[in-house]
Amino acid sequence: MNGTFFCTKCGAPNSAQAQFCNRCGTALSPVPAAAPSSVPAAASAPARSAPYAPPPSAIGLRYGGFWIRVVAAIIDAIIVRTLAWPIGLMFGLGGLAGTLGGFPHGAMGLHLLGSGVVIVVIIFGSWLYEAFMLSSPYQATLGKMIFGMKVTDLSGNRISFGRATGRHFAKWLSSMILFIGFIMVGFTERKQGLHDMLAGTLVRIG
Fold this sequence. Notes:
Shape: rod-shaped
Number of strands: 5
Helix content: 40-55%
Distance between the termini: 74 Å
């Protein structure tokens, strides 16, 4: 081994082969240089946390806005009323009795009966139509399906019939407060109306 070592007692320089200091005679015990570490320098540096990346399912996620949902609701209302009207006719001419030359004998009763049946059918038909469609594999009514929308829970899963029922009747509350519950769709971060918040649902596109 080549090199010079210094005596730890007197500090005199000595050759690497020397066993005793040439000045004070102290025994020398040279310590070989430490071998360079094989660990890369980058590995010894403190680890830096990776920047947050949203899960793939959250990238490009879109929600159904106010106006597109209004149009979808109009389409659904037309579908339900189209199905309900023939039933009303079967039970008493529905609203047509008043257009057939006034109200002849018995026509008033038929008119009221038919109109009442139509109202009942629309109320229950709207509930069953929406609850069954939202809890089905389609996860949407026909109006929403036209625009590629689906109703899910907050985790993106299909909702149950019971939750779909709760969401449907929560819309009545959204209506009773001057439709503010529906208007909230245009101002909330995830386009949730009051009925969506109460039922824990989202209306997603795609």
